[in-house]
Amino acid sequence: MRSLHLTLSLWLLAAMLALGGCVRTWETRDPQYAASASGPGSLAPEAQQTLAPTGVLRVGVYLGSPTSWVQDARTGASHGVAFELGHALGQALGVPVQIVRYPRVAEVIEALKRAEVDMTFTNATPARAKDVDFTPPLIQLELGVLVPSGSAIQSFAQIDRAGVRLGVSQGSSSQGVLGQRLKLARLVPVASLDVAQQQLQRGELDAFATNKGILFELSEKVPGSQVLTDRWGLENLAIAIPKGREAGRAYLNDFAQARVREGDVQRMSERAGLRGLAQTP
């Protein structure tokens, strides 16, 4: 019997790893991440049914961004604004939370469009708003550039030159904006932040562009690299949910505003080591 259970467990693990390149894991409702368990007010039944229609709140995250999900190298503990907001919302709704992990943010957005996850926390761009719904922004982040050791590039103004290879996350909002803005530099879409780290270390990229929260995290893994002090824009980050869930929007907006007002988002950002914050909207 024990052998049969082991075989079934291994089969289930293999099936999970094969699901679209993502790893799905169950997370308990840890009080560390519970912000005002009762939520912003009395919970209407339609809010729970709308925001977590399967009875489980599925939270989409990707590794390497403090706004989404990071792991402490020493303890292995998980942090991240999306990660913690998901736990807080699950607590408020009274449902268990499932963290669904993807290699990059574009895959999280695609999962939201297909209603394979119920929420995430990400840059609320007009292009994305055509496919998913957002709360009002909770925080703003500066957009910047990371350059490797010994780089002659000292500002964003020096990026748009012939021969400069600028890395961006494949399918990201940075790729869309910089693809229209830059005329001479060559954009290099990368599959994940781990790949970006490797390409910077091998000298295959001259710079990497995204929000500074990710850049400061990445800089610690690329010896000698630096995040340039200037910025080329701002990201407005908000909770995102699939289209068609209007019955839960008012509750979600109240929940989001309460998390900002009560300082929960600030504390989540600090636990994740989020840097590069601009003024709160």
Number of E strands: 13
CATH architecture of the largest domain: 3-Layer(aba) Sandwich
Percent of residues in helices comes to 25-40%
Tally of alpha and pi helices: 10
Secondary structural class: alpha+beta
Main pleated sheet: 8 strands, mixed
The CATH H-level superfamily of the largest domain is: Periplasmic binding protein-like II
Shape, per Cα inertia axes = elongated
Structural description of this entry:
The model is unreliable at 1-21 and 23-41 (pLDDT under 50). The protein folds into 2 domains: 16-140 and 236-272, D-Maltodextrin-Binding Protein, domain 2; 141-234, 3-Layer(aba) Sandwich (D-Maltodextrin-Binding Protein, domain 2). The protein has 281 residues and is an alpha+beta fold. β9 (165-169), α6 and β10 form a beta-alpha-beta unit. Strands 6, 7, 8, 9, 10, 11, 12 and 13 form an 8-stranded mixed sheet that branches. The longest helix has 16 residues, at 2-17. The protein contains 10 helices and 13 strands.
